[in-house]
Amino acid sequence: MASDMLSIGSSGLRAAQAALDVTSQNIANAATAGYVKRSVSLSELSSTGTGTSYGVVSQWGVRVTGITRDVDSFAQSEVRRTGSDAARADTLVTGLTSVSDAVDNSNVYASITAFQSALSKLTASPTDSSLRANVLAAAGNVAQSFNTASTSLASAQSGFQLAATDGVAQVNTLATSLAKLNQSIATETDPSSQATLLDQRDTMLQQLSQYGDVTTTIASNGTVNVQMGGASGPMLVTGSTASTMAMSQDATGAISYTLGGSALTLSGGSLAGTQQAMAASISAGSTLDGIANSLSSTVNSAQANGAALDGSAGTAMFSGSGAGGITLALTSGSGIAAAASGSAANSSDSTNLNALITSLGTANIAGQTNNLLYNLSSAVASNTTTQTTLDAIYSNAKTTLSSQSGVSMDDEAANLVRFQQAYQASAKVISVAQTLFNQLLQI
Amino acid sequence: MTSIGTSAFYDSAIYNLNKLSESTGTLQQQISTGNRLTHSYDDPVAAAQMRTMQAADTLSTTTTANTNAANTTLTQTDSTLSQFTTILTNIQTLATQAANGTVNASDKAKIGVQISAYYQNLVSLANTKDAYGNSIFSGTASGPAYTVDASGNATYAGSGAANPVSLGGAMTVTPSVTGPEAFDFTMANGQSGDLLSSVKALSDGLQNGTLTATQMNATGGTFDQLNAALDQLTTTQTVVGTRLSWISTAQNVQTAATTQRSSTEADVGGTNLTTAAAQLSQQMTILSASQASFTKLAGLSLFTYLT
Q: What is the structure's pLDDT at B286?
């Protein structure tokens, strides 16, 4: 009986000790990323039928059955899913903003307006050389702002390309690490070491979900299989093997992804955002090219219908094609064909100049640019609204996960007191057992 | 039992405080710049409207400049025509003296010389140039409106009427009159002529004594010609006056449109200071309350009470 008390007391001591260890571990890792709160699971140690008489229950104290990771796998998968969406929206908004800024800050719209203004200023005195020089300078500014916009778009696009390349490399690194981790998880038997490995696994899955939408299947032994691009997408990690993801671009520069050789359609993660931003940037670029070509052909055909200052037929004002290629071809202000065709030299006739102003208005060059700017900026604005919503959802999911599986200092403080008391009580049990035994000896 | 994780508490506090200070920052920027729109994507529709209105502003500066130039040229034309009238009236007086039977041949010749000097003045007035250095009576042609040959005869070297200048919207004005419009006349008897040739013929005739008082008084003679030329000048001045008042109307329209635009621009793209200041003060109150409650909550830990 007394020896039973001793062993029960010492098993209680061991259990309280283990619980205090886990509590200390929890406190120490309160701010560790990806750390899931641990707790000790205990069970009573008893047996029947082993005592002196049948039916008497023998009690042997308490046993530590394991260290539990208090994880809510639904909350974790919610964090991954909403995190993918938020990362896609974040990347897309950043990308669209740089596309919108590229066109907006190049002053294409203002320079077109200034060109029109310079043309109408010339109507006051079509032979004036300074007014002609003013038109020529304004035309040069238009060409340069188109060039600037095109260069800025190209640099935004090369940024997207780099981001996609880097993202794909990160996905491949994470996939390889996960495959290795799967191997370790499958062979690890020590519960506290396994808990650490599972923390690592979940952290990696969460990192992976920032790049693309992942679907995970967790086996009973803790290993994970990962699919990308929705439930019917190709496998990224199967047990201890990882497939390779790759990025390619077509002639226009549009990005597409493959995983293990098969086509991959991502709907979430920064890689999907980059892909969408690239598409928006390519479309903005081609619209801008269209506007530049329309400007150049409108002005050039009007020039061809008129006579330059020296009475000769007007020549093209712009050469080159597209926003990147448009250049000022006219070298002197006297080449502006303000007068009607066949006019004498130095004629202050402005018939053709007025026709040019009218045809610029009809071609609606400024209006087209305004529409492009509007479309780009409203894409940013509407996606920002989506981003704000998705960010709030992601933040909620993270808070939920962190409330359920994160460390609460107050809980741990209470646990410290509770397990300290349990330890003291078990020690008291041992001390009582000793007193009882001593009394027995004194008889 | 759900407890709030320590890191969850800090994470959500950081998220909320960041959002609050971000929105106070935006409001502060709107107030200090006076512009509601920093980027096009702050409000795409308003930004597109602002661009259209700013383009209209740029074009309207040009229209204003062109209107002012047309105004200057027409005012100059008007005063030049007034000088023509004055000189022509003087020539009429001199011609009346010359037509008097008591004037002898040598005095007639002297009057002829005086008229010849007036003729030179008229020719240089007819070649008056505007601010851009173009002759105001030459139409679309460059160079002088009238060229003078060796014997002093002036010939119109200009072209047809100048092109109308836009005064904004559909309003246009022809900024000048051509020489023939101002100086060519048709007399009551259907004969036509021009002011400069008539004056030249008068001066030559008086100087070489070939012009008699009878010829001068005859139908289609000097006096008929001078009267018809004077009528033509007055008519032209009326036309110029009408154009000037049209320009003044156009300037009023422009000013009204500019005022209208700048008030719309302030509505669409400007910061409403009252609203923004009230919102800022509201946000600041919420922010400082959140900060105070964060400090209090963060200080609440069971560890503080365990000894």
A: 92
A253: closest CA of chain B, how far (Å): 25
Nearest CA among A198, A247, A250 for reference residue A224 = A198
What pLDDT, on the 0 to 100 scale, is given for residue A423? 95
Helix, strand, coil: what percent of chain A each, to 5?
Answer: 65, 15, 20
User: Does residue A50 have a pLDDT over 70?
Assistant: no
Residue A273, Cβ density class (10 Å: 0-12 exposed, 13-18 middle, ≥19 buried): buried
CA distance B24 to chain A (A): 17
Which residues lie across from B172 on neighbouring strands? Answer: B166
pTM, 2 dp: 0.81
Helix (H) or strand (E) holding A307, with range, is strand A306-307
Which has the closest alpha carbon to B137: B178, B88, B98, B100? B178
In our burial notation (b when 16+ CB lie closer than 10 A, e otherwise), range A364-382 reads ebbebbbebbbbbbbbbbe
| DSSP E strand stretches across chain B | 146-148, 154-156, 165-166, 172-173, 184-186, 192-194
A440 Cβ neighbours under 8 A, 6+ residues apart: A2
Predicted local confidence at residue A48, as pLDDT = 64
Percent of chain A residues past pLDDT 70, beyond the cut: 97
pLDDT value, residue B260: 92
B151-157: average pLDDT: 89
Radius of gyration of chain B (CA): 39
Half-sphere exposure (CA, 13 Å, Cβ side) for A241? 4
What's the per-residue H, E or C state across B167-230?
CCCCCEECCCCCHHHHHEEECCCCCEEEHHHHHHHHHHHHHHCCCCHHHHHCCCCHHHHHHHHH
From A390's Cα to the closest Cα of chain B, the distance in A is 14
Interface mutation target, options A97, A108, A348, A357, chain B, most CBs of B under 10 Å: A348
What's the pLDDT at A68? 85
Q: Which of B8, B41, B162 sits opposite A381 (nearest CB)?
A: B41
The answer to whether the beta carbons of residues A289 and A103 sit under 8 Å apart is: no
CB of B128 within 8 A of CB of B78? no
Substitution target in B1, B163, B167, B306 with the highest count of A β-carbons within 10 Å is B163
CB of A373 less than 8 A from some CB of B: yes
- ipTM comes to 0.77
Write down the pLDDT at residue A52: 59
pLDDT at B93: 93
